[in-house]
Amino acid sequence: MKGAQRTQLSLSRRTCNAHIDSIGGSSIMTILALTTCLSAVPALSKQAKIGATTVPTKAERTACCSTPYTEECVSSLTAHRTSTNINNDQEASFLIAALRSSVAAVQDFRGHCKSDFSEISNSKTCMHSTLGMCVQSLESTENYLNSSISHLELLPESNSAPYMMEDVLTWLSASATYHTTCMDEMSHCSVLEDLNMSLIHGNQSMVRVANSISLARTMYQNYASPKSGEIPNRRLLAAPEIAMYDMDGDYPQWMRVGVRRLLQSSVNDTPYDTVVAKDGSGNYSSVQAAVNGAPSKSNASYVIRIKQGVYDELVNIPSNAYNVMFIGDGINKTIITGNVSVVQNGVTTFRTGTVAIDGDGFLAKDVTFQNTAGAENHQAVATRVDSDKSAFYRCSFEGYQDTLYIHSLRQFYQSCTVYGTVDFIFGNSAAMFQNCNLVCRKPLESQANTVTAQSRTSLDQNTGFSFQDCSVSAAPELASVVTSIYNQSIKSFLGRPWQEYSRTVFIETYMTNVINAAGWVDWNGTNFALATLYFAEYQNFGPGGNFTNRVSWATNITDPEVAAQYSISFISGAQWLPQTGIPFSSNI
Predict the structure, then answer these.
(1) pTM higher than 0.85, yes or no?
(2) What angle do CA 332, 279, 419 make, to 5 degrees?
(3) Which of 9, 23, 304, 360 has a 20 to 30 Å separation from 159 between CA atoms?
(4) Residues classed as catalytic
(5) Domain spanning 2-223: which superfamily?
């Protein structure tokens, strides 16, 4: 749980709503250490025993050398060895074997979580909330692992291969994120020893997914390796504006071309599938009721017009609702609002979202998403997004701590506004913000503002946050007390590292004097992640945009080619954004 990670918990108090002003270290390391003690090395031996009858080949051992858990990798490859190479591609065969091993481990982990979940009678406890989230997330993990296997089995000998591998790497990065969130939230909801078996299987599952990501990253780099004279990632920057491949069957064909017209037309000219209206003039009076009417796993967009009004409800777009689109009447006209928080409701941060988006291909235009719990109730998410190739246009996200939880997968934000205080844009997605306004509000007396808290846990993951042509400013109640970038009674920073390989980049962004001269801040006064993070800036401007007095561990990008790697290519945007009709820039 993100909020829990920012909490310094005493050994005697592992509760969901512990005080969260201070920032703790990475609790996932505690879990890994504990499960290592609980399980010892032999606990990872289920696959090893299966594979022990098969002598690993030199090629298998060589492939595993670069993975973080080499011996477990070797066991996985030998236990799930394929009879033939896929398209004569030994790398693909090895990765498929690792993925099959990961699927088996995820199924075991999910089974133990379901068993523990069924034994909790009180549905209003933190652990009930956490285990329910784990079961849901692990189901998505299994689906993404199987989709990755399908991609690899169909991997063509064509220019589409790099983009297919980008999909695989994205889905595996999301799978790792789901594991981290699940186990991290477990660690702060109950005594860990009460969940020994779930934690042991969770650790095994994390290890195998981590190895799969490492193998996928190597394979992706080989497919997308630059030609002589080219810089890395230029191939993706020059991608055509239409997808180079489509998938049939259950997998959605992303964002049909007709969607372009829906987002470019006026409200009255747009053809809708259904209409939500508070005054009874539509098909539904609640947003969730309209979402419930969406078809399952549809390749076609399901367009929901949400008329002007305040919709006080919690909304979830489930994982089987593909290509759902919200079209509102404008910011501060169409408002979806809620007030669930960790403090008030005893749930985990993951469950506080007013709107939770789990279905891939989600689009929204001209909608305000709110969580009105207030700063005093700490973690309170306005919108949580776990939707691949999702996009938001002219939307507003309003909250205080943890406003926008961009948890996983590829996301794009154009001409949006985000309000908040502590870590108000956070998660482990690959997210791109263009022409957005980031507005710091006045926090609690003991707090400082941090715009971002990105949570990449491995160099192999293709995740991170990028902000281009945006602005960072103060809300009126904060602007009135901020007079200088140096002497601030209330400090505001661009971000801090939530996990070890946190990655955030600001490009050509205007910053008012609300941003402290240091720019970035460490994790609760510790050296955590300072040697491994990547916090970078390129040609920012304004009173708070001067790099001169930045912390020593931030990077000042001077090469435009390096900055270009964090433009639209960072989320493979040229492959899918044209179909949405949402404007975007491919240039620095």
Answers:
(1) yes
(2) 15
(3) 360
(4) 423
(5) Invertase/pectin methylesterase inhibitor family protein (1.20.140.40)
